[in-house]
Design goal:
291 residues
């Protein structure tokens, strides 16, 4: 990294928070809050859900930065900037930032639980544990090819259904379908990262599902995520959003099924994050019109 490209003291923390992954936190909250329409929504509870989701996402990103950095997994980067691997910030400070973000999520979650249901305390604690042990601890499950399970559960079903319950205090059947939709979009975002990093992860012993499947097999995994998005929107009763999602994911699918590797796959993350935001906005607009 040349002196001209070294991020500033604030910018480096912003980059390490991985802004392109933050739609994975916001979109399920937006969909969960509005899936029943815009009537009688508890706005403050929805805001707290958004703050919890963002805090957990950023905390997990910092925890991933720290754990991968000290293991040497990020020693040869083809993706975005990392704090620990760059050597610009001591690993201990990155770890502290992760814990501070988890603590912030716990504070917001406690406020939400006091206003809604104390079950949110239990759910939040499991989310914090899952966020840390994704790449942290002696046997991180993200290194075993189980990251998609965490993402689908917490950034799909838990975030979407939890927000719906906090917003309107009941769970219509359609919410489960939208949990599948949002979880699949979040998994597509994860696969965009893992596809890009296959070679480095294999060399470092990080056995993500993409690394296990290899470049060709992982492209089909990305396609499966897109199928989950479409199926979730269809099951949720909004065929127009399902069709729109399929069309919007075409550029990403073209990249995923191409022969591109490494840095040439950076655009896949951009396509995935942008599509996630547009599909989320489209679903919210559809709910506003039809419900």
């Amino acid at each position: 990294m040349s002196a001209a490209t070294v991020p500033g003291s604030v910018q480096r923390w912003v980059l390490a928070a991985r802004p392109r992954t933050l739609p994975a936190a916001i979109v399920p909250v937006a969909i969960g809050a509005t899936v029943t329409g815009f009537h009688h929504i508890n706005v403050l509870n929805v805001v707290l859900c958004a703050l919890v989701a963002l805090s957990l996402q950023i905390a997990t990103n910092y925890a991933n930065d720290y754990a991968d950095g000290i293991r040497g997994t990020d020693a040869v980067r083809v993706g975005p900037f990392r704090l620990t691997a760059s050597g610009l910030v001591p690993a201990a400070k990155v770890k502290q930032a992760a814990f501070a973000s988890f603590a912030l999520a716990a504070i917001f979650g406690s406020a939400l639980a006091a206003r809604s249901s104390w079950w949110f305390i239990v759910i939040g604690l499991t989310a914090i544990v899952a966020g840390w042990f994704y790449t942290g601890g002696p046997k991180p499950y993200g290194y075993m090819g189980l990251g998609e399970v965490f993402v689908m559960i917490y950034f799909g079903f838990v975030a979407t259904l939890g927000t719906t319950y906090a917003a309107v205090h009941h769970l219509p059947a359609a919410t489960w379908w939208w949990g599948l939709c949002t979880g699949s979009m979040a998994c597509a975002l994860l696969e965009a990262n893992n596809l890009r990093d296959i070679a480095g992860d294999q060399a470092a012993g990080k056995r993500t599902l993409a690394a296990r499947l290899g470049r060709k097999g992982a492209s089909w995994l990305y396609g499966l995520c897109v199928a989950g998005v479409v199926a979730g929107a269809l099951g949720g009763g909004v065929a127009l959003v399902a069709a729109g999602a399929l069309v919007l994911y075409i550029p990403a699918l073209q990249v995923a099924y191409s022969s591109k590797t490494g840095r040439d796959l950076l655009v896949l993350l951009q396509h995935s994050a942008r599509t996630q935001l547009v599909v989320g906005a489209g679903a919210v607009l559809a709910f506003a019109i039809t419900r």
